[in-house]
Amino acid sequence: MLVTVLPWTKYYHRHLFIATRYFYVDCITYKTVC
Question: Domain ranges in the chain?
Answer without folding.
Answer: 1-34
